[in-house]
Design goal:
- The complex is a heterodimer of chains A (about 130) and B (about 450).
- Chain A has one domain: RNA polymerase II/Efflux pump adaptor protein, barrel-sandwich hybrid domain (OB fold (Dihydrolipoamide Acetyltransferase, E2P), Beta Barrel).
- Helices cover about 20% and strands about 35% of the residues of chain A.
- Chain A contains four helices and nine strands.
- In chain A, the strands form two sheets. A six-stranded antiparallel beta sheet of chain A has the order 1-2-3-9-8-5. In chain A, strands 4-6-7 form a three-stranded antiparallel beta sheet, with no helix packed on it.
- In chain A, a hairpin with a 2-residue loop joins strand 2 and strand 3.
- Helices cover about 35% and strands about 15% of the residues of chain B.
- Chain B is built from 13 helices and 15 strands.
- With about 450 residues, chain B is of the alpha/beta class.
- In chain B, helix 7 packs across helix 8.
- The chains are: A alpha+beta (about 130), B alpha/beta (about 450).
- Chains A and B meet through loops of A and loops of B.
């Protein structure tokens, strides 16, 4: 059974963001990693790149497909998870921890209000599964 | 015989089934003025004997490479093809198979393509090669698009000494995209890229050169790579005559980031321009931006070696508009021909062949330059092609040679207006010394 930590916010494209002091850590959800299957490669942007909310910032490649990653909020990339280059399976093993992807300095924290809470996302995933 | 696969009764039944009174009725959406109201104006049917005679007569009007001495190069080269190439490639296991989507029934094809990729890596000095593209020109255009993905930059610098047709294909591929193409001139003395004119910037995605270039002149790959890398751009090296790799240092060892080229010289007949073979090789760190498909080596659960298509998730048939390229196939049969050819020649055979080409070309160049009214246009080192400048009109020179069943070269003025009176000459191992003597004699009599 997939888990959705309470301290994260979620997008309809299955990214999560955990915000502390205007810096957000971003990754993909447990549901997303499970749906994708074994992840073999994660393509991430460079530190210093700017993105708007909803813009693709990279992609994740599994044995089945390559999927875009979408920005939950606008801002500037301040860190990327270098470990994923050698160990992309971290996304499967620990999607909310060691499998994080980028850190972003939020340019507009009010955008967080457009995202889903853990319980809302859980409900959304249930609907997705039933489709 | 008419190839209509159904009978009048069957057609009537199909019309009844879809509720359509006549076939004419089906065509109603096509406006009247576009409809053909009379039978096609074709000659009456002929017997097979007559048809064979008709086409044989047409074929006889071609100037075939078996009948003429070919001094034409410029992207298509007349080389000897060992009989083993045709004998093996004609086997149904190779010649009738479809794209190897099912590894469980395609191990032979997959292994042959894997070996092709390995051979291409070895001769280009690169780390990874794809299972081939359509031809040299599309390979160089794909390399340009790949360089833009890798660097996330726009500008492309293309040497004018790159094959004019290849430059046209680059222009076609990039026409609808925001890609500023800038041309780099050649040094009018040497014929190689004018290094002083090479000024890539931090906007430049790639520098595109060819070596040996369109004039047959060998470029200084290492110096060009340095210029490109200084500003974070990639160096794309195109090769139209890969036999040169038997003698020249592989571009990969000299700093090229993407090596592309035409593989026709590797056991593939001239065939009036195709099918040919697009060679594409690059560095492993760029593999996910590489177009086309790659065959990988894998192991099954019993530890036995096998081969599968790999990284296919980035191909168009899976990833649609987000694919790395529109190409969704490979030039499989020609790639296998090249693999058979290269395996047959071996490293020593390829080297000997390259030496023969270079020596024969050097001999003819020297002899032509001795004739009054003729000289070599460029001073740069060449492989098996060189540019001759003539005081006589080029058309007249080539006409006189053609009378002796010699296709003497390619006039350059249509491609380079400033090279009036110049023509490109290629000498391969197919040209015996006696033919070169005839060639020189014709020039001396002009």
């Amino acid at each position: 059974m997939a888990t959705y930590p309470e301290d994260c916010l979620y997008t309809r494209e299955h990214e999560w963001i955990r915000v502390e002091d205007d810096v957000g850590v971003i990754g993909i959800t447990d549901y997303a990693q499970e749906a994708l299957g074994d992840i073999v490669y994660v393509e991430l942007p460079s530190v210093g790149d700017h993105f708007s909310q909803g813009e693709p910032f990279g992609n994740v490649e599994s044995v089945k497909a390559v999927s875009e990653l979408y920005m939950p909020v606008s801002g500037e990339i301040v860190a990327i998870n270098e470990d994923l280059a050698e160990s992309p399976q971290l996304v499967n093993e620990d999607p909310y921890g060691d499998g994080w992807m980028v850190k972003i300095a939020l340019s507009d924290p009010t955008e967080l209000e457009t995202l889903m809470s853990a319980s809302e996302y859980e409900e959304y995933v249930k609907e997705e599964r039933e489709k | 015989m008419r190839y209509i696969p159904n009978s009048p009764e069957e057609r009537a039944e199909m019309l009844r089934e879809i509720g359509c009174p006549t076939i004419e009725h089906l065509f109603r959406p096509i406006p009247e003025k576009f409809r053909l109201k009379e039978p096609l104006r074709l000659p009456p049917a002929r017997s097979e004997v007559e048809v064979m005679a008709f086409f044989r007569e047409l074929a006889a009007r071609n100037a075939a490479a078996t009948e003429y001495a070919v001094f034409l190069g410029a992207g298509a080269y007349h080389h000897f093809i060992p009989s083993v190439v045709e004998a093996l490639i004609s086997r149904a296991e190779f010649s009738t198979v479809y794209t190897p989507y099912q590894p469980e029934i395609a191990q032979g094809t997959l292994q042959a393509l894997f070996e092709y990729q390995t051979l291409i890596c070895q001769i280009t000095g690169m780390e990874v090669a794809n299972a081939s593209l359509y031809d040299g020109s599309t390979a160089v255009a794909e390399a340009v698009l790949m360089a833009e993905r890798v660097t996330r930059r726009r500008e492309i610098l293309v040497a004018r000494s790159v094959h004019p047709h290849y430059r046209e294909v680059i222009a076609t591929y990039t026409r609808a995209l925001d890609v500023p193409l800038r041309l780099l001139d050649y040094d009018p003395e040497t014929g190689s890229v004018d290094l002083n004119a090479v000024a890539p910037s931090t906007e430049t995605a790639a520098l595109v050169v060819q070596s040996p270039n369109f004039f047959g002149v060998i470029e200084d790959i290492a110096a060009l790579a340095e210029r490109a890398h200084d500003v974070g751009a990639l160096l794309i090296v195109a090769i139209t005559e890969p036999i040169s790799l038997g003698l020249l240092r592989p571009p990969g060892e000299l700093g090229a980031d993407i090596v592309v080229g035409e593989g026709q010289s590797f056991g593939i007949p001239l065939s009036f321009g195709g099918p040919y073979l697009g060679i594409f090789a690059t560095r492993e760190r760029f593999v996910r931006q590489m177009p086309g498909r790659i065959i990988g080596q894998a192991f099954d659960r019993h530890g036995r070696r096998g081969f599968v298509m790999t990284l296919a998730t980035r191909e168009q048939y899976i990833r649609r508009e987000k694919a790395t390229s529109n190409i969704c196939t490979s030039q499989e049969l020609c790639a296998i021909m090249a693999a058979i050819y290269l395996s047959t020649m071996g490293p020593r055979g390829l080297r000997e062949l390259a030496e023969q080409n270079a020596q024969k070309a050097a001999y003819l160049a020297r002899e032509i330059a001795r004739q009054s009214g003729f000289q070599l246009r460029f001073s740069g080192s060449h492989f098996n092609e060189f540019v001759v400048q003539s005081e006589q009109p080029v058309a007249l020179v080539l006409e006189r040679l053609c009378e002796r069943k010699i296709l003497g070269g390619l006039p350059l003025e249509p491609y380079y207006p400033e090279l009036r009176g110049c023509f490109l000459v290629c000498v391969t191992e197919m040209i015996p010394r006696s033919t070169m003597e005839t060639y020189v004699r014709v020039l001396s009599e002009l």
